[in-house]
Amino acid sequence: MKDYFAHKADAYEQNAARVNNVHTIADAILEKITYDKTHTHLMDFGSGTGLLTSQIAPYVRKITTVDVSASMNEALKAKCDTMPCEIAMLELDLVNTEIQEQFDGVISSMTIHHVEDVPALFHKFYHLLKSGGTIALADLDKEDGSFHKEDTGVFHFGFEQDTFASWAKQAGFEDINIEIVSVAKKPYGEYPIFLLTGRKP
Known about the structure:
globular; Rossmann fold; about 30% strand; 5 helices; alpha/beta
């Protein structure tokens, strides 16, 4: 599988706008969902260099990171010892891989537009969660394709919020909420980012 981020991993966090955006997303997640420092074990789907992981880590017991990019995982591995929670790393394609473990929650930031079959991904998340487990997924609102100026394996130019929420509902999630929580600012435009939260009954 091609590592679309091989040339980007080293400098990924030097983009101040990107870092600030993830901070805003993390704040929104922590506003919507309560985690337990003693017990909560989350999956960070599309963890990249660990920007979101590092923001949520102080509030949970453990985070299992999932990313297909070897270069991004290398950048994250260098920081694992400094994280204020236990970190486990998985380098795999989640949609096509079976995992036996179950989680208290799944978090994700700006990754799902890189996944071809999003309804299947929602079913996978549902299967991987314990009863009462939560999802907190941030991604691009529908855009015109200008957000990505290079090929990073993009399947979707953002999402219609109603469609995204309906996929969560079809997978079995309840208490679904979706709203704009941040705006990615680029020299050529502004791109709203939504956060979807939901719960497995």
